[in-house]
Design goal:
globular; 36% helix; Rossmann fold; 4-stranded parallel beta sheet
Length: 106
C-alpha cells in the first residue's frame, strides 16, 4: 500500500509563497482562527508536515500545540519575513528533550 502524504505551509503570503515551487501546498493567512480551521482540515486529510510561521503560531496560542503528541501532522515552526522569534528552535528543543529525556541542544 502506497502512502501519498501531503506537505503544507501556513502563514503570511510573503513568508510562505516560495514553498509552492517545492510542491508544498500553501495556505496564506494571517488570521489565527482561519489557520486553526485549516490545520484541523489538513490533519484530518493525511497531511504529514505543516510548516507554520512563528508569528501565526503565536497568534494561534496553544491551538497548534494540540498536534505535538499526534503522529501526524508534524508541525514545524518557521520564521516569517518579520524575522526569527526563537519559537521554532524552542519547539524543537522541547521535542528533543521529550524524546531523549534530556536537553541536549542547549
Amino acid at each position: 500500500m502506497e502512502n501519498n502524504y501531503r506537505i503544507a505551509a501556513l502563514g503570511g503570503k510573503e513568508s510562505i509563497c516560495g514553498f509552492s515551487s517545492l510542491g508544498v501546498e500553501c495556505f496564506p493567512t494571517d488570521d489565527a482562527a482561519e489557520a486553526a480551521k485549516t490545520m484541523h482540515t489538513l490533519a484530518g486529510n493525511g497531511c504529514a508536515v505543516v510548516f507554520l510561521t512563528e508569528s501565526l503560531a503565536a497568534a494561534m496560542g496553544t491551538e497548534w500545540e494540540r498536534y505535538r503528541d499526534m503522529p501526524l501532522p508534524a508541525v514545524i515552526l518557521i520564521p516569517g519575513v518579520s524575522g526569527n522569534t526563537g519559537a521554532g528552535m524552542a519547539a524543537v528543543s522541547r521535542s528533543v528533550e521529550q524524546a531523549v529525556g534530556s536537553d541536549i541542544i542547549n
